[in-house]
Design goal:
The chain contains 16 helices and 23 strands. It is an alpha+beta fold. The protein has three domains: 257 residues, 2-Layer Sandwich (BirA Bifunctional Protein, domain 2), CATH 3.30.930; 82 residues, Herpes Virus-1 (2-Layer Sandwich); 94 residues, Anticodon-binding domain (Rossmann fold, 3-Layer(aba) Sandwich), CATH 3.40.50. The strands form seven sheets. A seven-stranded mixed β-sheet has the order 3-9-10-16-13-12-11, with helices on both faces. Strands 20-19-21-22-23 form a five-stranded mixed β-sheet, with helices on both faces. Strands 5-4-6 form a three-stranded antiparallel β-sheet. A hairpin with a 4-residue loop joins strand 14 and strand 15. Helix 6 runs antiparallel to helix 7. The chain starts with a helix and ends in a 5-residue tail after the last helix.
Length: 478
């Protein structure tokens, strides 16, 4: 883990963004709890996504499907038979790894050493292996041929590669037996597909239309490290867009553009985002690309845009015996729609914004840590600070807070020197601080201090709401 990443993880715990789950009992691997600031950041992100996907599109409706679904759902979707990762064990350290990620790490190491020709050769072998009939054996052969060693022990003593199903299972009802086995959903998409007709009919939709959902998913990941980037319990924000067969590529390009712009509008610098085209397509897809962000741990996926064809609806029609066809009143024809999916990890978006916002700066010979969140996403928008705890300043500051909290998330702080209070609020990403001093009490004006530039404006207190709304509207990424 890089030094920068460790600093972000440390700040997240220290300032109440993210805690290790069940920490008093030693924690539970790859599970995390969101603290007071983290839950506000997460809520702001999900609301911004919902606004962009549902509220701004008249032909997209929302859904909140159950986590537990009929087990045949996962047979139809292919998860029971094919939802697996290639697992390999280091016999010395007993650590487990994904075989494909070991090879990717080896490729990165070759490139860092300037051995691009060897890296290209191994990369092509990896692509071929992922598409091979016996992918596990093909991946094992690469690891053996390249003599890839364990990252933890440094030893070259591997088990064979085997496929590991990622779904958590449990039982339903009072008696535990195989007939009662069900699964915690590994994705939210299937809840959308099985409700295709329910939403279409009650929403009075015609193709093209979409169904959007935010919800929990669960995967028994082989390697669940890197903080909240890869967890066993996580949250997805997904939208399935149903189109006429043959029109999926047009919709695919439309959603590629819209989804990239959403991340940019969150304040992400364009240089930190890129597209990654899938070398191996899932069994249901005819096109797939990922939006990747350059984390301190390297380029990693944040969101996937997938053209899923008609695989899901057709499979559920076959397994359920229920028609999933759509009658098109414009053309008087019946067809099973194709689907374009946008799927973004809510937790990964939180991590993206924490990494993007984190800065260490020198100010007047002193260092400050600051989170430069977009004001619409910041957990706290405005800090209200009376200069001293007397002479009517706290009373006026409380009146200002009561007014502003109708429009913004606020924090009142009267403890310590005002400079220290500025630094505390900088570190949690608060865009604006309002200082109430003696002049404020006498004349009704206050000082507004800007987080990113530290510039200060003096304005009448009665104009604060309009002023702050204007600042947020005109905010630019720095």
């Amino acid at each position: 883990m890089s030094d920068l990443f460790e600093k972000i993880v440390s700040l997240s715990k220290r300032r109440g963004f993210i805690f290790q789950s069940s920490e008093i009992y030693g924690g539970l691997a790859a599970t995390y709890d969101y603290g007071p600031l983290g839950v506000e950041l997460k809520r702001n992100i999900s609301q911004r996504w919902w606004n962009a996907m549902v509220q701004r599109h008249e032909n997209i409706s929302g859904l909140d499907a159950a986590i537990l679904m009929h087990p045949t759902t996962w047979k139809a979707s292919g998860h029971v038979d094919a939802f697996s990762d290639p697992l390999i064990d280091d016999k010395t350290s007993k650590m487990r790894y994904r075989a494909d990620q070991l090879i990717e790490g080896h490729i990165d190491k070759l490139r860092r050493k300037g051995k691009d020709e060897d890296a290209d050769r191994v990369y092509q072998a990896l692509v071929d292996a992922l598409n091979a009939e016996d992918a596990a054996k093909a991946l094992y052969d690469i690891i053996m041929g390249e003599e890839i060693r364990s990252p933890d022990s440094g030893m070259f003593d591997w088990t064979e590669v085997r496929q590991f199903n990622l779904m958590f299972d449990t039982t339903i009802g009072p008696v535990s037996n195989p007939d009662n086995k069900i699964y915690l959903r590994p994705e939210t998409a299937q809840g959308i597909f099985v409700n295709f007709h329910n939403v279409r009919e009650t929403g009075r939709h015609q193709v093209p239309f979409g169904i959007a959902q935010i919800g929990k998913a669960f995967r028994n990941e082989i390697v669940a490290r890197q903080f909240i980037f890869r967890m066993r319990e996580f949250e997805q924000m997904e939208m399935q867009y149903f189109v006429k067969p043959g029109e999926q590529m047009e919709a695919f390009e439309q959603w590629r553009e819209e989804r990239m712009q959403w991340h940019l509008d969150n304040g992400i610098r364009p240089s930190k985002l890129r597209w990654h085209v899938h070398e191996k397509l899932a069994h249901y897809a005819d096109a797939a690309q990922d939006i990747q962000y350059e984390f301190p741990i390297g380029w990693q996926e944040v969101e996937g845009i997938h053209s899923r064809t008609d695989f899901d609806l057709k499979a559920h029609q076959e397994y359920s015996g229920k028609k999933m066809e759509y009658f098109d009143p414009q053309t008087n024809e019946k067809y099973i729609p194709f689907v374009v999916e946008t799927s973004v990890g809510l937790d990964r978006t939180v991590l993206t914004l924490l990494c993007e916002a984190y800065r260490e700066e020198e100010v007047g010979g002193e260092s400050r840590t600051v989170l430069k969140f977009h004001p619409r996403l910041a957990p706290i928008t405005v800090g209200i600070l009376p200069l001293v705890k007397k002479d009517g300043m706290p009373e006026m500051a409380h009146r200002i807070e009561d007014e502003l909290r109708q429009h913004f998330s606020t924090s009142y702080d009267e403890k310590g020197a005002v400079g220290r209070r500025y630094r505390r609020l900088d570190e949690i990403g608060t865009p604006f601080c309002i200082t109430v001093d003696g002049e404020s009490v006498e004349e009704g004006s206050v000082t507004v201090r800007h987080r990113d530039t530290m510039h200060q404006d003096r304005i009448p207190a009665e104009n604060l709401t309009a002023y702050l709304l204007g600042q947020i509207r005109d905010w630019k990424t720095s």
